[in-house]
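Now for one protein, fold included:
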Amino acid sequence: MEQQRANTSLNEVSAPETQDVNLDCSLAGYDYSLPNELIAQNPVFPRDSSRLLVVNSPTTGIKTAPLHHIFRDLPDLLRANDLLVINDTKVIPARLYGHKSTGAEIEVLLLEERQYNCWLALVKPGKRFKLGAKIFFAPRRLEARTEQDCHPHPNRLTATVVETDTATGGRLLHFDVPEGKPLVEVLDQFGEIPLPPYITASTAADEQYQTVYAQKPGAIAAPTAGLHFTPELLSKLCDGGVNQGFITLHVGVGTFRPVEIEDVTNHQMHEEWISVPPATVEQIRATKAAGGRIIAVGTTVVRALEGAAQSGDLQAFCGKTDLFIHPGYQWRVIDGLITNFHLPRSSLLMLVSALIGRERLLNIYREAIASKYRFYSFGDAMLILPEGRGVIS
C-alpha cells in the first residue's frame, strides 16, 4: 500500500480539504510514509555523488515532476553572481557516557553552554536526577571501568546537576574539568559525535558527519545539506562565478525538537545561537544589487539569515533566534535553497513548505520515494531554484 501511494501521479487530484481544517496549519498535514530502507545509514562516497532532486518551475510537484541530477551537477544549475550562504558550524562530541556514585550508568547529550563549563544537557535516565547529583566520566580510551570511575581523578571528568530546565526537560550541568580547561577542549577524550536516533547501523567515520568547511565548534548535529560538498566542487563553483558567504548557527535542540501540537502555528521553537557577520551581510546586499540570487545551503542558513532580518532589513547579528518558519511566512532574504529530505511532522518540513507550498512538497516527496532517493542526514538532497519557488493555491 505504501509503495502504491508513493507512485501516485503528480497530476492526481488529492482529496479536498474540509473548510474547517487548514492542513497548512495542522500537524496532520505534514505526515507522510517512508519505507525504512530509504533511511540512509551511511553517506555516499565521494560526497558529491549523492542524488539531487531539482525544483525548477512553479509547476514542479503540481503539473510536472522534479528533475533528477547528481549533486556534482550543481555548477550547471546555478549562475555566475549567485551567492551560496554556508553554515560553518562544527559538530562537537556531545554524547557522553558516565556513572553516578551508585554505579548506575548515565547518558548525557550536551545541548549548549550557558556559562563557562556549565552546560544544558539531556540526561538519560533523568527523571530522578536531582540537584547536587554527580556524574563521573572516564576517558573513552580506558579499557575497563572500575570503582575508581565513580570518584574524582586527575584524568577524569565530573559533572554536578545545578539546575533543571523545564523547556527541554534537561539539566544544567557544571563540569569540573581536569586542569581547569574549557570542556570543549577535552570533549574529544570523553565524548562521541551524536548521530541522530534514526541512524542505527552506521559505519561512518566521525569526519563524515562534518562538512568539509566546518570551523566553529558548537553544534550537536550537522547542517546536513552541506555534507554533499567536496573541496573540488566548491572550487569549481568559484571558478564558475558562484560566490560563497558564511554564517554560523550551532545546531541544537531547536532544529530537531518535534512539533507536538496540532495547531503548528502555536509551536514554540527553542532558541539557537547564530552569527551573521557584517561581511556576509555586505555580500548579500552586493549580490542582490547585481541581480544575483541568494542560495541558502540548508535550513539552518535560512533560519540564521531570516532571523537576522526580523526588523525588516538584514543586519549583522550575533545572538539567539527562536524563529519558526511555516506556510504564510513573508520571506526577506533567501531566493533558493539546498536541503536534505526531512522527517514527517518536523519544523524543517514546515519551513520548506513555506517556500513552495505543503501539497507541492509532499507530492515531490512522493516522487522521491518512488525514485528510491535516500532520506535524512546521510541521504540525498533537493535544490529549490528561485524560479521554482511559489505557493500554488
